[in-house]
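USER:
Class, as today's exercise, take the chain set out below, and explain how the chain folds.
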Amino acid sequence: MNIGEAAKRSGVSAKMIRYYESAGLIAKAARSEAGYRHYADADLHRLRFIHRARELGFPMVRIAELLSLWDNESRSNGEVKRLAESHIVALNREIAALQSMVKTLRRLTESCQGDGRAHCPILEDLAHAAAAPVASRPQLKGARRP
């Protein structure tokens, strides 16, 4: 099947299929005489695996590890479980950071009258943070620094 058909059947865009191929997550596609990529059912199965792992929020490096384990018939399911449990910890950290952001934004929106005045506590908070050096700013747990 060509890349368009593989994309349609796997739920992965053609652009991402090319990316996964360049990243080594799927094998280099066979090429037709005209140079078009050709994918087999095994490639489609692998693309669906990657798609599902992405839906679960696994980062690319972990997806590569999971694919390696999937390819290894003598794998230990303990290693797979360890990867999944580690991902749960990371997701919980992200959830906590998002909840903290929501709490802060709620507090800020509740303090803003929204009545047309020039003074805005939301902008004031953002401006205050912008004035502080990055290293000295408080950081939400799990948030990434630029």
About this structure: The mean pLDDT is 90.
